[in-house]
Amino acid sequence: MKKRMRLSVFMAVFLLALMLPFSNAQAAALKDGTYSVNYTVLKAEGNAVSMANDYWLKPAKVIVKNGNLTVQMTIKNSSWVTEFKVPGNGGYVDTTVLSTNKKANTRLVQFQAQSLSKPITSKIHVTVKSADYDHDYTIQLKFDESSIKSLSSNSANQSSGAAESQQPSKESTNKADSSTTKQEENPQTGDTGQIGWLLVLVLCSGGFLARKWIIKH
């Protein structure tokens, strides 16, 4: 009886170990092409949303080529966010500016990412001359892998030429902000579904063992 119980517990733990990393491997398994992905700008530590979250338009665009990830983001209030650096070369490096829109006060930037599974720690410098405000901040870019959607596969080759056309209008900016707010209010469902299946498996195993124990005793 004890051997069977130990075996059932071992199987439950084994299934848990297999299923939990599944969602984190989603980005690594992406085929070459272009994708959109939602994300949130967090404070330097923990999961609290940073005020800088309002300075980034969502979603981001991810270009996958030969397993390499290139992330493109549009920064609002571009004149305020004077620096945006990501990990690289043993420290932090500037993101590449693809285009700017002075009228909309936005700029499109890109950088290389190793993975979307873990938050990417970044450095920004915010300067607001009219308010005599000048500070450095550390932020985290947390990507929602369950929101990844495939875009045109040809976009990867056209990203540089089409960068200027990607600048959002006021209407699209409002829509992006609205969708971001809704996303933050709604919990992610991908991991929850997997945990639900695990609970079902564990409960079924527990019920089966309990039934056999009652019959024997």
Automatic annotation (TrEMBL):
Primary location recorded for the protein, binned into one broad class: secreted
All copies of domain NEAT, residue ranges: 30-151
GO molecular function: hemoglobin binding
Parts of the chain that traverse the membrane: 195-214
Topological type in the membrane: Peptidoglycan-anchor
CDD domains: NEAT (cd06920)
Annotated Polar residues bias: 168-190
Keyword line: Cell wall, Iron, Membrane, Peptidoglycan-anchor, Secreted, Signal, Transmembrane, Transmembrane helix
InterPro entries: Haem_uptake_protein_IsdC (IPR019909), IsdA (IPR050436), NEAT_dom (IPR006635), NEAT_dom_sf (IPR037250), Sortase_SrtB_target (IPR017502)
Signal peptide extent: 1-27
GO biological process, one term: heme transport
Highest taxon listed in the record's lineage: Bacteria
Pfam families named among the record's database cross-references: NEAT
PANTHER family in the record: IRON-REGULATED SURFACE DETERMINANT PROTEIN C
Name the record gives this protein: Iron-regulated surface determinant protein C
Organism annotation: Bacillus safensis
